[in-house]
């Protein structure tokens, strides 16, 4: 039987961002320099393929420091950032730790600290329970940061001094949803101070914009990413909002729901910021087994941002 034709619109930018690439390099170079095991608190990035590959090389992933023996081996904190209490606990145990927090997340931490030092109540726009949110709120004493997720949360805020407010945001949010919440904050609290530069990171913004560009032109959209990846889930939401109701999140090609896609002629394809390009190729190969595929890359912008890894790993 002849294969049906399929045009894949491949979004660009997609996949790894500079912060994810840096975090993975930190684990790999620590393994090269110090040997296995290298301990990693929480998933270094939210991608099972990446985590499994690093585990195969000797990385040991834990959720808390008390799971790590006192063997002198390095401990790495994930790209999402950690509460201030985590490095304090590591210092108390005289652990050798390396911080792989994305520099753009660290920027939000410093903003929150600056606002707190200036006596402001801080509002954080983010998702409850996300590691980045836990890390940001954990930079300051309990009560210093109030978390909001929706416009409804903004409406119900009770603030003792509305003239002395500031807000920050998680770096991996929906650009559109965050803009709506930000407008609600400015409407209720006109004097609230926002970030000097938007907290949502360049990679999140660019990947969402690339999806917006193709969503109306395809019958289905596949986002490669993990179920616990905030930026990947936001890409799914953006795809649906901007015209592609058949938008699916998959971790690997084996997760594709083929019956849903058997009659399509156009497919959008992208990957979240923690998904490696090898998984994009894997998905394209899976479609090529079932369709006669033409791949057209739709480029929105080029990304050339890189972040330096800690000097201790390059010395």
Describe the structure.
- The protein is an alpha/beta fold.
- It has 3 domains: 4-16 and 202-299, 3-Layer(aba) Sandwich (Cobalt-precorrin-4 Transmethylase, domain 1), CATH 3.40.1010; 18-102, Rossmann fold; 104-188, 4-hydroxy-3-methylbut-2-enyl diphosphate reductase, catalytic domain (Cobalt-precorrin-4 Transmethylase, domain 1, 3-Layer(aba) Sandwich).
- Helices cover 38% and strands 19% of the residues.
- It has helices at 18-34, 48-57, 85-92, 103-117, 131-137, 151-155, 175-188, 202-215, 230-241, 258-261, 277-290; strands at 4-12, 38-41, 59-62, 75-77, 97-99, 121-125, 145-148, 165-169, 220-224, 247-250, 266-271, 291-299.
- The strands form 3 sheets. It has a 5-stranded parallel sheet with strand order 10-9-11-1-12, sandwiched between helices. It has a 4-stranded parallel sheet with strand order 3-2-4-5. The protein has a 3-stranded parallel sheet with strand order 7-6-8, with helices on both faces.
- Strand 9 (220-224), helix 9 (230-241) and strand 10 (247-250) form a beta-alpha-beta unit.
- Helix 8 (202-215) packs parallel to helix 9.
- The model has no long low-confidence stretch (mean pLDDT 96).
């Amino acid at each position: 039987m002849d294969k049906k034709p399929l045009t894949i619109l491949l979004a660009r930018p997609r996949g790894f961002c500079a912060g994810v690439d840096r975090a993975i390099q930190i684990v790999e170079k620590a393994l090269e320099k110090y040997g296995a095991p290298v301990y990693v608190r929480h998933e270094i990035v939210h991608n099972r393929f990446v985590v499994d590959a690093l585990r195969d090389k000797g990385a040991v992933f834990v959720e808390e420091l008390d799971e790590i023996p006192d063997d002198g081996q390095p401990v790495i904190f994930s790209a999402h950032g950690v509460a201030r209490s985590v490095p304090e606990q590591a210092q108390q145990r005289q652990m050798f730790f390396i911080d792989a927090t994305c520099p753009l997340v660290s920027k939000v931490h410093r903003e929150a600290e600056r606002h707190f030092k200036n006596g402001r109540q801080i509002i954080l726009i983010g998702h409850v329970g996300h590691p980045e949110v836990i890390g940001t709120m954990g930079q300051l004493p309990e009560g210093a940061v109030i978390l909001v997720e929706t416009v409804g949360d903004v409406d119900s805020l009770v603030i003792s001094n509305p003239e002395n407010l500031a807000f920050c945001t998680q770096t991996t949010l929906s650009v559109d949803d965050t803009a709506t919440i930000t407008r609600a904050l400015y409407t209720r609290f006109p004097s609230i101070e926002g970030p000097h530069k938007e907290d949502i990171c360049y990679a999140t913004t660019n990947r969402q914009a690339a999806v917006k560009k193709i969503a109306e032109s395809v019958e289905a959209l596949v986002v490669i990413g993990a179920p616990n990846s905030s930026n990947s889930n936001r890409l799914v939401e953006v795809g649906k909002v901007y015209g592609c109701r058949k938008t699916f999140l998959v971790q690997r090609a084996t997760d594709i729901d083929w019956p849903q896609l058997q009659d399509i002629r156009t497919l959008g394809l992208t990957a979240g910021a923690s998904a490696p390009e090898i998984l994009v190729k894997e998905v394209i190969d899976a479609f090529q087994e079932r369709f006669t595929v033409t791949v057209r890359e739709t480029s929105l912008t080029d990304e050339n941002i890189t972040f330096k890894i800690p000097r201790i790993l390059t010395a």
